[in-house]
Structures are given as C-alpha cells and as structure tokens.
Amino acid sequence: MMDLKKLTFELxxxxxxxxxxxxxxxxSPDSYPYQWLWDSCFHAIILSHxxxxxxxxxxxxxxxxxxxxxLIPHIIYWDKMAKTDFPxxxxxxxxxxSITQPPMIAYAVWQIxxxxxxxxxxxxxxxxxxxxxxxxxxxxxPHQNHLIGILNPxxxxxxxxxxxxxxxxLPSIHTIDENRQKRFELADQNIKCNxxxxxxMRNFFWVKDVPFNSIMVENLKILSQIAExxxxxxxAKFFLREQEKIVEAMKKxxxxxxxxxxxxxxxxxxxxxxxxxxxxxxxxxxxSKDQAKKLVDDYLLNPKxxxxxxxxxxxxxxxxxxxxxxxxxxxxxxxxxxxxxxxLIKYNFLDLAEQIKQSSxxxxxxxxxxxxxxxxxxxxxxxxxxxxxxxxxxxx
Length: 396
Ligand code: GLC
Fold this sequence. Notes:
- By secondary structure, the protein is α+β, with helices and mostly antiparallel strands.
- It has a single domain (4-395), classed as Glycosyltransferase (Alpha/alpha barrel), CATH 1.50.10.
- Helices cover 46% and strands 7% of the residues.
- It is built from 14 helices and 12 strands.
- The chain has helices at 4-15, 37-47, 52-63, 105-116, 119-139, 165-168, 176-192, 197-203, 210-229, 233-253, 280-283, 289-300, 334-346, 350-367, and strands at 16-19, 22-25, 35-36, 75-76, 149-150, 207-208, 255-256, 259-260, 263-264, 269-270, 372-373, 380-381.
- Strand 1 and strand 2 form a beta hairpin.
- The structure holds alpha-D-glucopyranose (GLC).
- Residues 27, 32, 36, 38-39, 157, 159 line the site of alpha-D-glucopyranose.
C-alpha cells in the first residue's frame, strides 16, 4: 500500500522553488519549470494540508505579477534559464505571459483561511483579488451579457481541447503542431492589438467557456464571503449579484438538452463537443438536482460516453476527436477529476465521487505522478513528477 501523503509531500518538496523573497511550486521540473496560475491554486490547496504558511507564500508569489489592469498572468517566468522543452512563446512580455487562466484564486485563499482563520492574510490579498475579478467582469464582458470570455484556448487551462477546434478553424482530427501553430498565432495577434481584450475576442477568438464561467461563479461566491468577513458588505453584495447574473446568462445562452455548451461568436453558437466541461457546472451548483441526476445517468455512468475503466476521460469516447493519449483530447487529468469530485459531493452522489477518488488513487499508484493517464489502461503520459496529482489528498 503506497503512502500517498508521504509521496505528495516529497513531490512538493522537490518541486518548490525560492527566488528573492518568493516561493512557488513548478508543475513539473522538466516540462513546466515556471509558475502557472491555476496550478499554483491547486498547489496552494495541496500545501494547505501540510504547511499553511507555504500555501500562503504560493499565493503571494502568484499575485506578485498582477498587471495594472488587474489581469493575473498565467505564467510567471521566474527562472528564464531553466532547461525545458516547453516551447518559447512570444507573449509580448518578458517575465510573464499576457493571458490568464481559470480564476481559482479566491477558492484557494478561502481554503487557506478555513484552516487558520488568519484575517491578516485575506486582508493582504483582498485588493489583488478584487482587481482580478473586477477585470474579468468588465474587460472580459464588454457587452455586459454576463458571460466571461477567454481570448486564447490556453486561458481555459485545456490548451488543445476539442472545444476550441471550431474557433481555431481546425478539423476534429489534427496534429498537436497544427494546434500549437494556431494558438501561437493568437498570441501574436494579442500583441498586435495591444492586449485589448475586447478587440482580441471580437476579431480573433470569441469563446465563452463553460468551465471558466463555472469556476468564476464558484469563486465569486467565495469572494463575496471573503469581502463579508473583511466588513466590505457592499463588495460582498456586488460579487454575489454578479455571479447570479453569470448563472442566468449561462442558462440563457449555453443550456440545451440538459447540457451546458461553450459558445462561439457573437450569436453564441453552441459548440456541441462533449468534454468533461458538461460536468463543470456541478462544481458551482448551477444545475438543479433533477438535471444533475440526468446528467450523471446519461453521461457519467454511460459506457458509450464517459464511463471508462479509469474515470474520467476529458473527452467523451463517442467524439471523433477523442484520442486516449493526446493531451486534453481524451486522457484523465487529476484536476478535472477533482472538480467533478467536488461537484458530485455537493449533489450528494457520494458513491460516484468515491469512485472518482479511487480511480485517481489507482492511476497514481500504478503510473506515478504523471500529467495525464490512459482512461482504459491507466498508463501515464506527458510530464513526470506533475505536482497537481497531489489534489487526490484534497478529495475528502
Ligand atoms: C499545460 C496545461 C495547463 C497547465 C500547464 C502547466 O499547459 O494545459 O492547464 O496549467 O500545462 O501545468
């Protein structure tokens, strides 16, 4: 029987880095030797089970590169000399990228606060959080339709997911190089339009993504609680109202046949590719109980869709684009399992949540802390010593 807690602790120790007064954790020493936004939120959540002060430092380093407009970049290149095969991408910036990632920061901060009730920490980070979520609510929703837009697939955290094929004008089967080429072109366009989010979205990549918006909803609810604790009751009301508006807009523009679909373009064309994203609204309790039950029965428990040997493939096996080995086009990832696990718990699907947890543990005990896993055999693929695998410890 492996000692998962001990292994995770050792992994964290060897992936933590210090620079100047900052500390952060790399997602994988060889493949991803910098700091990434949502990874750091996951790392802080994992660290909160071991050392609360380190969890706080993880968040503080992440916030240290916030832009004047509030955006928090998805990569911070603390060590530009690090040896890696991660591609050199021109973001128009030197030390950071110029795009963001799913806004999990309030959630991670709240988890830390739950453990030690240290108000001085939430007080310290509140202005950064306020500016980040305000940025997303305004700059990423220029028409005030209450859905938050992303301007590059990488902002979803699922870089080459088939949800973005339509917007990238790619067929459902293509190579990773073809996909990267398109995303790098978007980064170049981003620079040319001087990081004007509204212009970039309108002209180059106009997508409202289901997981990003679901994560935003959950995080705004938490931000509202943080504001309340700090006595900012007007802010608390504001953030609560904003998340309600997003939920309404998701129902209006994204929902059809009991599923939430990401949308493309100004007319909100639904992108009907079944990925794990159909389960993301569970995390923010956007579905009714009946809708959740139907979703689980029709898709999670269906061997023709998502019920594979190891739960949970990131793309339905019924999709043309499904590829059991190709990054975000099929394999199991521990972070997506964690989101679905948390969602299932909220709806009291305890047995199913337990199955997802056990699958995640089996994958790691069989194949180690790999980036992603084959949903049929459990074989590990991609980066090694991948830190967010430790999220299994947070499946409680
Ligand atoms: C890949 C993943 C992204 C993650 C990054 C670092 O780019 O798609 O979600 O943040 O690696 O782990």
